[in-house]
Write a structure and sequence with these properties.
The chain is mainly α and 108 residues long. The protein folds into two domains: 33 residues; 57 residues. It has five helices and no strands. The longest helix has 43 residues. 13% of the residues are buried. It comes from Photobacterium alginatilyticum. Keywords: Coiled coil. This is DNA-binding protein.
């Protein structure tokens, strides 16, 4: 009876597959953590927005839009839409807050 040693190619393949599985698991875990963090940040932004008066809301939304514009300076409407989505308000409401002279003046 001869003892057959494991095939080196099979050992390498097993190791590679196990490595890919660990990498995939780590990526999934990071993605889940990132989604949870993004949800928490969205909830915090909404809470801050709803706790403000009209003038505070205008300044807050304007600042969020400026932050979003930095991501894509050529797409102002996209920035406003992303802020609206974050705060769960309508895009026209964001525009209204940005253009409201009354709210901006009351807050200064």
């Amino acid at each position: 009876m001869s003892v057959q040693s494991p095939d080196p190619l099979e050992q390498i393949m097993t190791t590679v597959v196990a490595g890919f599985q660990k990498t995939t698991d780590a990526i999934k875990e990071l993605k889940n953590k990132q989604e949870a963090l993004e949800l928490q940040q969205k909830q915090q932004a909404k809470a801050a927005y709803h706790g403000m008066t009209g003038s505070g809301k205008s300044r807050y939304v304007a600042e969020l839009v400026e932050i979003e514009k930095q991501k894509d300076p050529n797409n102002t409407r996209g920035a406003q839409k992303r802020v609206a989505d974050t705060l769960d308000i309508s895009a026209p409401r964001v525009t209204q807050l940005l253009k409201s002279d009354k709210n901006r003046k009351n807050g200064k």
